[in-house]
Every structure is written in structure tokens, then in C-alpha cells.
Amino acid sequence: MIPSKKALEISERLHNLIPAGGHTYSKGDDQFPSNAPRALVYGQGSHVWDSDGNEFVDWGMGLRSVILGHCYPAVVEAAKSALGVGANFCRPHMLELELAELITKTIPSAEMVKFAKNGSDTTTAAVLIATLSAPALRICFISSIDLSPPPTVSGMNIFSAVFFTISDRLFLPYRLATTSM
């Protein structure tokens, strides 16, 4: 499917205002084939619609977080109900305590619970906990940012991918990691 003039204009506007045209790297144009929709405007169940009104199956399901589908009625009603008591408090809400208690009761090995807003925060927390728990642990970061070594850092070549170490952590550029191994 060839993008329409309208879709291309929307894509240009996105790229002019948002680096890489999307707020997460997984939404970037380089993550999708050239015939993928440029911008989505609506979702219902497992389907989404683009700016031209074309319908698609959302194989990504909201970056894998929409397991029940878009606009799932029970979730929409629960969100509406929750908004009626306030949102984004500066201190913990009682629901956070109740859910943490339920999780630790349901999963006996879970001594504590930490809620996070995205995968980056949870990954950072997991790396921090692992590093503190096992100081000799070596951690490999696969990055979507170009982390090619500066001239003053010694680089190595493995699997045709350049990597370098800083403070016992291995940095491997995402594109090279995914295409070279």
C-alpha cells in the first residue's frame, strides 16, 4: 500500500516536531516496513485505523500492553471510575498499597513490590538490583542509541559488532546486535 499524500504530510509533521517521528524508538519508521501506516487515529479490539481510514490488525497490540484489545469495555469503565477519585497523586494512593498487599500475598516469594511506568524504568531497576546483589556481575546493554566508541575508548570487534565497556558494563548498539548475531 502506497501512503497517501495526507499520510506523508502527517509523517513529515511528526518528524519535524518529534525526534525520529515517535516518542518511543519502537514506534519509529525504521521499525516498520515502508508500507506500514504512518499514524494511527483509533483502535477497537485487535484492530486499528490510520489517518486515511484504513483498517489494520494491530499485531503489536499497543507495544504489547493492550492484551485485552483497544477500548476493552471493562477497562474503559474501570478507568473512568478511577478518574473520578483523582489521578497522579504526589503521594502513594491506597490502591497502590492494596495491590502491593495482594501481590505479596499471592506470590509468596515476592517480599516487596515496585510499580513503574514503563519498560525502561523496570529494566533500569532490574539492572540496579542485579548489580547490587551480585557486584561481580557483568551486564550487557543492547542500546537503540548509537554508542560507537569514541576514539579514546578501546573497541573490539565480535560478531561484526563494535562494543565497548564502561564500569564493567558492555554496550552493544541495538542495530548491530540484532543484525550481526
Structure write-up:
With 181 residues, the protein is α+β, with helices and mostly antiparallel strands. The protein has 3 domains: 5-74, Aspartate Aminotransferase, domain 1 (Alpha-Beta Complex); 88-116, no CATH class; 129-180, no CATH class. The protein is 35% helix and 17% strand. It has helices at 5-17, 61-64, 73-83, 94-106, 119-133, 174-180, and strands spanning 40-44, 47-50, 55-57, 139-143, 156-158, 161-166, 169-173. A 4-stranded mixed β-sheet has the order 4-7-6-5. It has a 3-stranded antiparallel β-sheet with strand order 1-2-3, with no helix packed on it. It is extended. Mean pLDDT is 77; it is low at 144-168 and 172-181.
- Rounded mean pLDDT is 77
Distance between the first and last residues' Cα: 31 Å
| CATH fold-type name of the largest domain | Aspartate Aminotransferase, domain 1
Output the structural class.
alpha+beta
Number of helices: 6
Helix content: 25-40%
How is the largest sheet built, in terms of strand order? Answer: 4-7-6-5
What is the element string, with H for helices and E for strands?
HEEEHHHHEEEEH
CATH 2nd-level architecture of the largest domain: Alpha-Beta Complex
Q: Identify low-pLDDT runs.
A: 144-168, 172-181
Rg, rounded, reads 21 Å
Q: What is the general shape?
A: extended
Domain tally: 3
β content, as a range? Answer: 15-25%
Q: Write out the CATH superfamily name of the largest domain.
A: Aspartate Aminotransferase, domain 1
What's the level 1 CATH class of the largest domain? Alpha Beta
Quantity of strands, as a count: 7
Main sheet record: 4 strands, mixed
